[in-house]
Amino acid sequence: MKISSLVPLLGGTYKGDDLDIEGISSYQYQKSNTIVFLDKEDIDFKDNIVYIYHKDINAKNLLIVEDVKYALAIALDILYKEDMPKGVSGKATIGQNVSLGKDVYIGDFTHIGKNVNIGNNVLIYPLTYIGDNTQIGDNTIIYSGVHIYKNTVIGKNVIIHSGAVIGADGFGYAISKNGIKKLKHIGNVVIDDDVEIGANTTIDRALLDSTYIGKNTKIDNLVMIGHNDKIGQNCFLISQVGLSGSVEIGDNVILAGQVGVADHVKIGNNVKVAAKSGVANNLEPNKTYGANLPVIEWNQWKRIYISLLKLPDIIKKLKA
Questions:
Q1: How far apart are CA 319 and CA 36, in angstroms?
Q2: CATH class as words, domain 146-289
Q3: Which of 90, 91, 166, 313 is the most exposed place for a label (fewest CB within 10 A)?
């Protein structure tokens, strides 16, 4: 593909030769006839490579764009198109009253329950389970080994990676003098449009209503979302985040890795929470929070910990 054909798609201003582009390479391992996206300019430039940067630099072939990372995302889609399999495998199990849209793919040993509605251009890879009464919107991709329980509602353009479990029972029990009785969860999970769900992430169904994931929210691998949770639009939940039940999260929220949120907590719009922080109370919108402890040398930490244990006595003496 000629760079002249790519420039209108990537935007920006280009100067240089109209090279044939065969792919993308990193600035550490530059390959001939590729595009290199830069986050710095102190590298060795070569004449048979197109460089993309946010300002003018000393490169023979240069495309200047406003947002380098966004241009990279577009180029990856164009130059590395995914295969789009089609057709329903004869080794799949399809239940009664299932509606399939146009150009649907259903892989080997997939189980589709009864009364399932699948939109156009949906890809369901092998060894996937889709429970009864599930709805799946157009252009959604469900990779192999996903388990989707009954009554789940999935919007358009959703991506669900391998090993995810959507709609399992919430962790709820009635504890009394008569013993422990499981609360049967009869709600469901609703996933809005343009959501991505990482590998081995779990989203539990609600007790009575719906666990909800808002539009354009991105969920990393190994995230746990509890029953009755409500997550807003454009949120990022990063690896090993854990949400207890009935958590409410606003729009544009970022929870970094291993953040834990207690049950019934409300997090406002535009909040950011640093990695490894525990959230036990409601968080006001438009703020950044964090109570993590970065790693320090072990002997130093033991000295700090001993000092922390002495703090109550020191405070008492200061007040006396």
A1: 63
A2: mainly beta
A3: 90
Backbone phi, psi, residue 273, to 5°: -125, 125
Locus of tokens 């070569």:
46
User: How many Å apart are CA 226 and CA 261, to the nearest integer?
Assistant: 10
Left if phi > 0, otherwise alpha if psi is -120 to 50, otherwise beta: which for 315? alpha
Q: Where are the domains of the chain?
A: 3-79, 146-289
Question: What's the CA gap between 3 and 21, in Å, rounded?
Answer: 6
Per-residue model confidence as pLDDT tens digits over 24-44: 999 999 999 999 999 988 899
The answer to whether 206 and 227 have CB atoms below 8 angstroms apart is yes
**pLDDT tens across the length of the chain (320 residues):** 999 999 999 999 999 999 999 999 999 999 999 999 999 888 999 999 999 999 999 899 999 999 999 999 999 999 999 888 989 999 999 999 999 999 999 999 999 999 999 999 999 999 999 999 999 999 999 999 999 999 999 999 999 999 999 999 999 999 999 999 999 999 999 999 999 999 999 999 999 999 999 999 999 999 999 999 999 999 999 999 999 999 999 999 999 999 999 999 999 999 999 999 999 999 999 999 998 778 899 999 999 999 999 999 999 989 87
The structure's pTM equals 0.91
Cα–Cα distance measured from residue 159 to residue 285, given in angstroms and rounded to the nearest whole number: 28
> Collapsing DSSP states into helix, strand and coil, what is residue 6?
helix
Cα separation, 80 vs 1, whole angstroms: 12
Residue the block writes with tokens 């090279």: 19
Beta carbons within 10 angstroms of residue 221's beta carbon: 16
Active site residue 147: no
Are residues 76 and 94 in contact, defined by beta-carbon separation less than 8 angstroms?
A: no
How would you class 116 by CB atoms within 10 Å of its CB: exposed for 0-12, middle for 13-18, buried for 19 or more?
A: buried
Residue found under tokens 């156009």: 120
Active-site residue, selected from the candidate residues 161, 185, 227, 264: 227
